[in-house]
Amino acid sequence: MSKKKHGMRRIAGYLVNHKLINWMPDKPYLQIFYYAEFGKFIDFKNPQTFNEKLNWLKLHYRKPELITLVDKYEVKNYIASKIGEQYVIPTLGVWDKFEDIDFDELPNQFVLKCTHDSGGLVVCKDKSQLDLKKAKEKIEKAGGKAEVV
Fold first, then answer.
1. Which residues, in sequence order, are CB contacts of 133 under 8 Å at separation 6+?
2. Is the full-model pTM beyond 0.85?
3. Sheet with 121-124, side-by-side order of all strands
4. Are 142 and 117 in contact (CB under 8 A)?
């Protein structure tokens, strides 16, 4: 990879990681995000790769029910209504703020995650060993509501 291209990827990555482009419309945002990851732009007119096709769908497949399906808490109600509650992992609670969680009330083992992303996940195997400061940082970095299962 050329130094110029590598430098451009680093700049794009910096913009994405520091949330400096979150204000942008979807299409240019996706292009910068994709460039930071893959070193090339998305071909929206003729998507070929799986990732290009997923990004095309982000722009062109805007069904209202998708909002429910990407929320870990809301999708549980959807699944229960479609195929039955026996297929849903029980939720111990959902909180708007990390400070609202009463850890004394939780079992010794649990999973703490945000309802809307794939990165804010804390697996607690032993509550006495849980680093609350690190858990709070991880959940708050991801943003959104915290769910415990």
1. none
2. no
3. 93-95, 146-148, 110-114, 121-124
4. yes
pLDDT score of 43: 95
Residue 11, CA distances (Å) to 7, 28, 142 in order? 6, 15, 22
SS (H, E, C) 51-102: HHHHHHHHHHCCCCHHHHHCCCCHHHHHHHHHHCHHHCCCCCEEECCHHHCC
Helix (H) or strand (E) holding 122: strand 121-124
- Model confidence at 7, pLDDT cuts 50, 70, 90, reads confident
> How far apart are the C-alpha atoms of 12 and 34, rounded to whole Å?
9
Give CA–CA dist 149/132, Å, rounded. 17
Average confidence (pLDDT) over 60-79: 87
Q: What is the mean pLDDT of the segment spanning 125-145?
A: 86
DSSP summary character for residue 143: -
